[in-house]
């Protein structure tokens, strides 16, 4: 699968000074994952500590995407900060569940639910919003 066949779009909105909403669209795989990784690294560099990853338009994710989520989770928690996955598609949710990532990274259906978790300081619990 090449990026020409399945391009990845990453849009970043700064919700608050320390919170970035990262909306991802397209296949998140070995060929496209570096684009997401670069955007997340840039947001870390600019002081964001909390990341809301909207994966509602990601029909496919392989271990490359999962590893980026885990890496940013690890880096954010060290700040301290957090990572929240928003509305993953069923295929992506399955990957997150099968690998246990959903036990580490909170999954919410709405951005507002994830922001509530950020405000309450609940990051990395095994509950859903």
Automatic annotation (TrEMBL):
Pfam families: STAS
SUPFAM superfamilies: SpoIIaa-like
Domain STAS: 17-118
InterPro entries (UniProt xref): Anti-sigma_ant, STAS_dom, STAS_dom_sf
GO molecular function: anti-sigma factor antagonist activity
CDD domains reported in the protein's UniProt record: STAS_anti-anti-sigma_factors
The family this protein is said to belong to: Belongs to the anti-sigma-factor antagonist family.
UniProt-recorded name of the protein: Anti-sigma factor antagonist
Native source species: Streptomyces griseoruber
Lineage: Bacteria, Bacillati, Actinomycetota, Actinomycetes, Kitasatosporales
């Amino acid at each position: 699968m090449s990026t020409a066949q399945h391009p990845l779009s990453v849009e970043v909105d700064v919700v608050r000074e320390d919170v970035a909403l990262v909306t991802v669209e397209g296949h998140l795989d070995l060929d496209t994952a570096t684009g997401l990784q670069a955007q997340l690294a840039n947001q870390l560099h600019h002081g964001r500590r909390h990341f809301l990853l909207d994966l509602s338009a990601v029909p496919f994710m392989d271990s490359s995407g999962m590893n980026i989520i885990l890496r940013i989770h690890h880096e954010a928690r060290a700040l301290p900060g957090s990572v929240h996955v928003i509305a993953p598609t069923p295929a992506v949710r399955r990957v997150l569940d099968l690998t246990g990532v959903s036990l580490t990274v909170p999954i919410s259906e709405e951005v507002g639910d994830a922001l509530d978790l950020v405000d309450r300081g609940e990051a990395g619990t095994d509950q859903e919003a």
